Amino acid sequence: MIIFFPTLGEVSKLVIDCSGLLAQKGHSSDLIKNDTQKKTVQTQLRRLAREEGDLNKNLSDLLLLLEGLLSEHLGDDRLSFNMMNAVREVLEAYRQSLNSS
């Protein structure tokens, strides 16, 4: 039996989607101001899941956006920084487990 694991891009997209912080209807953000920017982020997420282009750069850009949205939502830069460190550590551990199998 062959077991397939989700790609790092797919797992990263899931983490970002599950945060619930991406632009939602009626939610204003200094980082995602309009529908055009929202669609751009959605396109970036699709490309990340498919691992199109430079995976590391795309992931880094989206994680920076997530950190900004988290900081905006929480109002505490220190807390959002620590939470993002945990997210980065989980994704890096997943990357290492994919490379070792």
Q: Cα distance, first to last residue?
A: 15 Å
Low-confidence stretches: none
* Structure classification: mainly alpha
Q: Could you tell me the radius of gyration in angstroms?
A: 14 Å
Strand content: under 5%
Number of strands: 0
Count of individual helical segments: 4
Mean pLDDT: 90
Q: What string gives the helices and strands in order?
A: HHHH
Helix content class = over 70%
General form: globular
Sheet bearing the most strands, described? Answer: none
Count of the separate structural domains: 1
Describe it.
The protein has 101 residues and is mostly helical. The chain has one domain. Helices cover 71% and strands 0% of the residues. The protein has 4 helices and no strands. Helix 1 (8-19) runs parallel beside helix 3. The longest helix has 24 residues, at 77-100. The radius of gyration is 14 Å and the shape is globular. The mean pLDDT is 90.
Q: In a few lines, what is going on in this structure?
A:
With 101 residues, the protein is mostly helical. It has one domain (8-100). It has 4 helices and no strands.
Keywords summarizing the entry:
single chain; 101 residues; mainly alpha
Layout of SSEs?
Blueprint: H1 8-19, H2 35-50, H3 55-74, H4 77-100
